[in-house]
């Protein structure tokens, strides 16, 4: 199947899940995770109406941004870990960053955001399953991180992101998401710009959408298996 066909299948799946949980179909945005995929695949998705693309690796993200600079309506999201020495490249190219979990990185992104660009939309990454192998802050550190991001002039806090440990059942996955959902709703009550909960990938779309996700990150189901050098 083509990228366009795959994309349509994913959109249909999201529509079915939102209907199942009595949510408006437009309440969940689809982020196409294009890491390791060639520009031609991104253009195929673009031709099928996709505009949000997520990248995990800094140099690849910057290269694709440059190659597709004439496509001004592409919204680039960085969804991978950021090293201090790579923060400037992200600040100068991306529209969104999903992986804020350190004071130093947040400060650098704000300082390095070009003056002629709008504030960088950011999500704070929460490690809701307390996995040592994953990035993200704990929920009890959230208030401090929120205060820091809100004080930085060139960042705009839009919400939270998480990658939970997989669970055996949908019900168990929903249970894992509940504390994050509650934290997100509390943030929304405090800050009018907070509107994004980035949770849900191919394996847990239903649980994520049931838990209030407003953005799901899907790669393989759209583009096929990852390409590695």
TrEMBL record:
Its cofactor is pyridoxal 5'-phosphate. It comes from the Bacteria. The modification N6-(pyridoxal phosphate)lysine is found at residue 35. Residues 9-226 form the Alanine racemase N-terminal domain. GO terms for molecular function: pyridoxal phosphate binding. CDD domains: PLPDE_III_Yggs_like. Keywords: Pyridoxal phosphate. PROSITE patterns: UPF0001. Pyridoxal 5'-phosphate (PLP)-binding protein, which is involved in PLP homeostasis. Belongs to the pyridoxal phosphate-binding protein YggS/PROSC family. This is Pyridoxal phosphate homeostasis protein. It comes from Marinomonas fungiae.
């Amino acid at each position: 199947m083509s990228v366009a066909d795959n994309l349509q299948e994913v959109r249909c799946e999201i529509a079915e899940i939102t209907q199942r949980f009595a949510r408006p179909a437009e309440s969940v945005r689809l982020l196409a995770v294009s890491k390791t995929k060639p520009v031609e695949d991104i253009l195929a998705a673009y031709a099928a109406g996709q505009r949000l693309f997520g990248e995990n690796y800094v140099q690849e993200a910057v290269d694709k941004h440059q190659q597709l600079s004439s496509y001004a309506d592409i919204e680039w999201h960085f969804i991978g870990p950021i090293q201090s020495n790579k923060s400037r490249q992200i600040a100068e190219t991306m529209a969104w960053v999903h992986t804020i979990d350190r004071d130093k990185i947040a400060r650098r992104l704000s300082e390095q955001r070009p003056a002629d660009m709008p504030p960088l939309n950011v999500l704070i990454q929460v490690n809701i399953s307390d996995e040592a192998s994953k990035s993200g802050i704990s929920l009890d550190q959230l208030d401090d991180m929120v205060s820091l991001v809100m004080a930085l002039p060139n960042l705009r806090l839009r919400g939270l992101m998480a990658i939970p440990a997989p669970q055996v059942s949908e019900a168990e996955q929903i249970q894992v998401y509940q504390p994050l959902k509650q934290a997100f709703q509390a943030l929304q009550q405090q800050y009018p710009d907070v509107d994004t909960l980035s949770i849900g990938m191919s394996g847990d779309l239903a649980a994520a959408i049931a838990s209030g996700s407003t953005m799901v990150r899907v790669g393989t189901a759209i583009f096929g298996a990852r390409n590695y050098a």
